[in-house]
Amino acid sequence: MSYKNGKNIDVKSAFLGPMAENNEILEELIIDSLRDYIYWRRNIHPEDSPSISENDKIQPLYIHTKSVMRQELFNILAELKKGAPIYSKRYFGHILGDLFIPSMVGYFAAMLYNQNNVVAEVSPVTIEKELNYIKEISKMLSYPILDYDKLSSSPKDTSWGHLSAGGTTANLEAIWVARNIKYFPLSVRLLSKTNKKYKLLESLEIQTPNGQIARLKDIGPFQLLSLKSKDVLGLILKIEKTLIQGQLGKNAMLDFENQMPTIQKLGLINFYQECKDRHLDFKLPKVIIPQTVHYCWFKSMDILGVGNKNLTQIPVDYSFKMKVDILQEEISNATQNEVPILALIGICGTTEEGAVDPLSHMARIKTNTEKKQNVSFWFHSDAAIGGYFAALLKDKNFHDTSTKGMVDIKALRECDSIVVDPHKLGYIPYPAGAVIFKDSRIREHITYKAPYLNESEYIMKTFIGKWTLEGSRPGASAISCYLSQHTFPLNREGYGQILDGCMKVRDKLLLAFDDVNRNPEKNRGFQIKLLYKPQLNIICYTVCSPKYLKTPECLNEMTNKIYNKLSVAGNLHASSYEYLVSKTDYSFKDYKQIIDNYLSGMNIRDRMLGGDYRLVALRSVLMNPMVDDDVILNGFAQYLCKVAEELLPEVQIENLIKTNNNMRLRIAVAEDNDVDCSSLRYHLEFDQTLSKGLEIRAISDVNEFDEIFRAYKPHVVITDIKFNNNLFAGIELIKYLKGRKNREKQFKNIIVYSANLENDAVARELSGLGIPARHRISKSYDYIKDSRAILNTIMESFM
Question: How much of the chain is in helix, strand and coil states, percent to nearest 5?
Fold first, then answer.
């Protein structure tokens, strides 16, 4: 593959590899970085005397301390191996992937210098590389390119962004910016009413969303909270011009800033009360987001004082994408009732499903709302997962770039702000999130200065932290991102290859699922059923069985048990696990139609689900583009069914106990009992899984059966045909059970377990007695297999 500087790069050189195949590359680069750093220290002022002498190094306490460090390191290294092997080709779990070699080397190298990307005075190189990386992200997202010079001279023509700890803080910053910007015009109006000096601002001309021009004093609170963000961002210059024309002095803007009753200064409650006292009443704004919302958004609403009650969740369709018809209805209702909309959030890659909201349609709704209803709102995308797929946008030949999906990813450019996470599909070490704003003028609304840090007009010499939610941020993350991006650019030739490889792995796994589902020998009576058609690299599914798992509770129990077997418990070595997955769940209250539709094709009965029911699903995220081994993928699909078969008795027994009011099922076993270890009773009791739910009584004498039957009152009778040297002893017992109608109702829960089922006379007798074929189990003398077959018959027929 060609690279922009003429070099060739190979995806397989990007990672250490599942078997550490590229260990030499990583070791060489790490050693080079360490040695270079050491030489740097030694050569700053070589004339200075050392603080640690060679004599110090041979002192007993020094040697002891060094040995303690080594031993404690070895202890923790041993513990770390109990973690999830995210590098493995068998890891199909969370949104965790192997790290790029350049990302590890970059992080390690910069970590030695311990740079803090809060101010260029401390970290001039790492801040430059951070902004350079953000510049490349802005290109990838088709945003205005981050331009250092324009940040001071023409800020509206450049984007702005920076790295953060992750998606949570990045999304929080985006909604923090949106809140401050949306409230700013109302703050100006409030100032004009409370301070006579600034009454001249009432004549300020403002453009409304539909293009009309109105004076500030003629615009109501709802409309002031519903202006376009770009028009709000242009107000500062208009205000400055008005104050200059009003001859308020050279310090007019500084005084204006000090006097402004912003929400940042007053807080939401005081701001609301001040407005109410000045007859500028307004209803609290809402944030609109799909119901697939990540939990970090509830934190953000809490922290910013907006309140979770004002987070309006829009239902999603069967593909877990926001329903645009309901969105349109919600916006129209809010507008009619003069409820301001602070922000509309679209998700590009939901955390659980990898679904991409219809961002292109949402952008059109925003435009139409501005034109027809004269209302606008901040448009943000939480693209922490899916943002990097924008690297595929310009190549029509790349795998799985369906028109509809890519149109929505392309629509990211319509958003006012976007969050992407380098530590997810950027393959960068934690912590590394990123937030990008289309218009760098947003910085004016979140500026906080520190008196002990130097100021400068030039971005590379200034205090960056005054425009970031977080203060201290690691320069190591910036170098990690920068070095990775310069090795694998954020386009189709670089990251595009990686992500396209993940999509190919996804499709291969789906083919493996289909193959297993069609092959009874491979699926063992189970089916792997997708919850939705995946769009990105995340799949949610269950291992179901129309034959064995007939209730929602049984399906959930099976899913939970499979997950427990295929997830890291923290007490075993990674090699103890064949494969690893993650899981998620869906509330019936919130996803009723989706769950009903999903269960309808599984022969699930008793689907009268309550509001507390949650459908549990397995979840696999395909992060490793090098899983090109069909044996691994096909083996995973078959392993899921194999594990389900092994867990089925435990699921059935636990369900049996629950449906039987926590009572064990009483089983009467009629057979020869002369050799105890070869009896069915022995093996049913020996199987700990079965014995948890079964209470077993053995009967070897037909003459004693009536008395025992009346006292024991079994739920199920299992009988051999031949015992006590009588070939038809079992037939006599069945006749007894069938003929009880003169005294009590007939007993029907009968299973025949015998090696004599092929006998023609026996077969005729059983047919005449109405014993169906599914209740006749041939004794194979593989007692574990036979016990499970009997349990399946009990569960299928009698529960």
Answer: 50, 15, 35
Q: In angstroms, rounded to a whole number, what is the distance separating the alpha carbons of residues 110 and 102?
A: 12
Q: Is the pLDDT of residue 205 over 70?
A: yes
Q: Which two tokens stand for residue 194?
A: 């409370």
pLDDT class of 135 with cuts at 50, 70, 90: very high
The DSSP result for 735-765, as a single string, is HHHHTGGGTSPPP--EEEEES-TT-HHHHHH
Give the CA dihedral 354, 355, 357, 360, nearest 10 degrees.
Answer: 90
* Nearest-angstrom CA–CA distance, 341 and 182: 9
Q: Is 661 exposed, middle or buried (0-12, 13-18, 19+ CB in 10 A)?
A: exposed
Residue 418 three-state SS? strand
How many residues are listed for the chain in this entry?
799
Give me the pLDDT at residue 357, please: 96
Tokens of 307: 């309140």
- Expressed in angstroms, the distance from the first to the final Cα of the chain is 61
Rounded to two decimals, the pTM is 0.88
Nearest to 682 by CA among 755, 751, 781: 781
Strands 160-164 and 433-437, how do they pair? Answer: antiparallel
Q: What DSSP line would sit under 560-606, residue for residue?
A: HHHHHHTS--SSS-GGG-S-EEEEEEEETTTSHHHHHHHHHTTT---
Give the C-alpha separation, 527 to 521, whole Å.
12
* pLDDT tens per residue, range 293-332: 988 899 988 988 888 999 999 999 999 999 999 999 999 9
Output the six-digit token pair for 672: 């020869």
Alpha-carbon distance of 408 to 401, in angstroms, equals 11
CA angle, 19 then 20 then 24, to 5°: 150
Q: Which ranges in 660-779 belong to alpha helices (H)?
A: 680-686, 688-691, 705-712, 729-738, 760-768
H helix or E strand, kind and range, residue 238: helix 235-245
Neighbours of 570 (CB within 10 A): 9
pLDDT digits (tens, 9 = 90+) for 666-716: 888 888 765 566 677 777 777 766 777 788 888 877 777 878 788 888 888
